[in-house]
Structure formats: C-alpha cells, structure tokens
Design brief:
Number of strands: 17
Mean pLDDT: 86
Oligomer: single chain
Shape: globular
Low-confidence stretches: 14-30, 205-210
Number of helices: 3
Largest sheet: 16 strands, antiparallel, barrel
C-alpha cells in the first residue's frame, strides 16, 4: 500500500511511544515474568523470563540535484518501528514495520511504500548454532544486512544498494553462529558464519515480478578486537520475468581502523549473469566502493566515499562513478544530522553527469 494514511498511523504510534507508553522495565530491579522497555537493558540476564523491546527511528531530508528534469525532495524518508521479544535468550520473535519514501535525486528510481520489513523467529541453541525462519535482511556483505540508513555514514546508499543488485530481504531459513577466542596474538577474535536459503525479493512473498525468485547463499566474517574485519559472501538468485535470468554473486568486504579516529571500509561485488535475459542487461557486473571516515570530534565526522561500477538503474548497464563527501553531526546520542554533496560521472555512456546534495536529520527512539 502506498498511502499516507499508513504513515499517519505510524506517526501516532511514535507519539504514543514517546509520551504515553507504559512505564519501562528498564528501571525495575526485581525479576518479572514479562518486561517491556525501550533500551537493550530490558534483555539483561535475570531481569525477566520474557522481555520485549519496542523502538525504531525516523528521518527526513531535503535533497536536490542539477538535472533539468529533476525535482527537489523535502519530506519524510523513513518511519520505522520494531518489536523485539525474547524468551531467556533462547527464542526471539522480531517484527519490523516501515514507511519508506526514497527520492530519485541520486539517480535511482524513487520508492514509496509501507511494508513489513522483517518478521522472523530465531532459536538459539548456543553461540555456535542458531536457526532463523521468516522474512529477514539478506546476510550479504556489510551494508545490506544492516539497512538502517540513519546508522550509516552517508545519506545516499552505495551503488549496489541504489539499484538493488542484491534483494534486501529473504523469505526463508538461516543457520548461523559465532566462535570466539584469542587466536591472533592474544587479540579478541570472532569467526561468524551464515548459510541460508529461501525466496529473495524486495516486496512480499510472490508479490513483485522481476525481482523475486529462489535463492541461497552464505557469509563468512572474521573480526579482530571488534573493530577490524574481513568477510566474503556468496549468493545465488533466480530472477522472474521480465529479467528471467540466474545470478551468481560474490562479495568481498572488510574494514580496518588504522588510527583511533579513522575508519577505512570497502566492498566489492561481482555478479555473473546467464545470457537468457534482456540483451541490454546481459553483461556481468562489477561494483565497488572505498570509504574513509575521520571522527575529528566526539560528535562530528567527515566521510569520503568513492563508488564505481556497472549501474543498471536506467535499464542499460552503464559505468557509473560517484564521489560523495558527507559531514555528520550527532548533537545528542539519539540524533543524527548529515550534510552531503555527491558528484556523479557516467563513463562511456550517453547519460548526463550531474551533482546532487542534501541534508538529513534523524531520531532514534
């Protein structure tokens, strides 16, 4: 459904959460059978047999570019609510609903919808073994499984997310786990794995032609001292009509923190397509980005991202380079403000180069 009525209902629920919700269990000290709160402390061991955390986020933006056919955007981008219920750290039931209105200022198709973003149940046997079933974010690379733009360094998503090279969600099952140790010269180390299979797509199950189909994949990541990591993701997707093709994907990604206030991260996607598809979209694609963030103040950062690769957003694969500079401010722990400028260059293509800019403000609750 693409109506403003849903956004209004979500806004009323947001107001209720802010001023009218029952007293939080975060301040309770005695054990109860069921605790409800707005912070992760509601899941503290020994607090309650059952616990539910209710939260979310909202953001809006002003965005524009210098294309003659484009229009300014000013409005609400996301209104997101989640309900996270857990039983003794063993069982988790997670529901996330979202109103989303993405602009076309960055060169990608606009999107406006209300949907159930995630709905899954997760059974945890141990750190090394957990089973999840339902609708969940695709465990592929760094950006896709996180997906909350308010937590990211930029307003505009990277190229592979902009035209949905990989479906955002899976309807299926996942087996995952982590192993911890001090295997690298005494440093805290984590090895994490995920294998999954189901039905990959942007909308509801069996609902959106051209983007949905059977899928399976895996993700492996090694993390050092909770700051540095390296990973590889593999993913196979069957696409329905009109694309009618099979896609094999590999993502290499990693992050290092060379100095205390500097973060370097990158992702590289290789997508191999069979030739039984639309001729203009039949070639294999390569997409990558590298970003460097400097937290020069405890509440401010500057982020530069260079993104390049094949762009399918116009219906024909083109070589698209994007240079993005973002200044971020966090005046309060739950408030995010970003100001951004991006230079878009199309190489060996008839598409026109352009520049885009914007300011975004968000609130976590």
């Amino acid at each position: 459904m693409h109506t403003s009525a849903h956004a209004q209902r979500l806004a009323l629920l947001l107001i209720w959460l802010a001023i009218g919700a029952p007293a939080s269990a975060d301040d309770q000290t005695s054990r109860t059978s069921w605790a409800i709160g707005r912070t992760p402390e509601v899941f503290a061991p020994g607090r309650a047999t059952w616990a539910t955390r209710v939260g979310g986020w909202v953001d809006g933006s002003y965005e524009d570019n210098n294309l003659p056919t484009s229009h300014q955007f000013l409005g609400l981008n996301h209104l997101n609510l989640f309900f996270d219920t857990r039983y003794q750290e063993r069982v988790q039931l997670f529901l996330e609903v979202e109103y989303e209105h993405e602009s076309d200022i960055g060169g990608f198709a606009s999107e406006r919808e209300y949907e159930v973003e995630q709905l899954f149940v997760r059974f945890k046997h141990s750190d090394a073994f957990a089973l999840r079933a339902g609708k969940f974010n695709t465990p592929f690379g760094f950006w896709t499984p996180l997906h909350w733009s308010i937590l990211m360094d930029t307003i505009q998503a990277p190229l592979h997310e902009g035209f949905r090279a990989i479906p955002e969600q899976q309807h299926g099952v996942e087996l995952s786990g982590s192993f911890f140790g001090n295997w690298v010269d005494g440093h805290d180390t984590e090895f994490r794995y995920s294998v999954f299979s189901g039905y990959g797509g942007q909308g509801e199950l069996l609902d959106e032609a051209g983007t949905d189909g059977w899928s399976y994949g895996s993700d492996l990541r090694a993390t050092l001292d909770e700051r540095h990591f390296i990973g590889v993701s593999l993913y196979h997707q069957e696409r329905d009509l009109p694309l009618d093709r099979s896609e094999g994907n590999m993502m290499l990604y990693g992050q290092v923190v060379p100095f205390q206030d500097w973060t370097l991260r990158g992702e590289y996607l290789r997508q191999k397509r069979d030739r039984n598809t639309v001729a203009a979209l039949s070639r294999n694609i390569n997409i990558a980005y590298v970003k460097l963030r400097w937290d020069f103040h405890e509440r401010m950062f500057v982020n530069y991202r260079w993104n390049w690769g094949d762009d399918d957003s116009s219906g024909v694969s083109t070589d698209h380079h994007i240079h993005t500079l973002t200044w971020g401010v966090q005046p309060r722990p739950n408030v995010r403000i970003k100001i951004e400028f991006a230079n878009h260059l199309y190489l060996k293509s008839g598409r026109r180069d352009f520049q885009s800019w914007g300011i975004s403000a968000g609130f976590l609750f």
